[in-house]
Amino acid sequence: MGITIHYGFRMRSKDSVIRLLKKTKALASKLGMKLIQEQDTMLVLHPHPKCESINLDFRQWKEVKAVKEWDYCKECMQDFSKLLNDTDYVCASFTKTQFAGFETHVTVAEFLRRIAASCSLSYVSDEADYYETGDMELAAKNFDANTEMIQKFTTYLKEHFGAENVYSSIDQA
Question: Which of 47, 88, 91, 166 sits at a 20 to 30 Å CA gap from 120?
Answer without folding.
Answer: 47
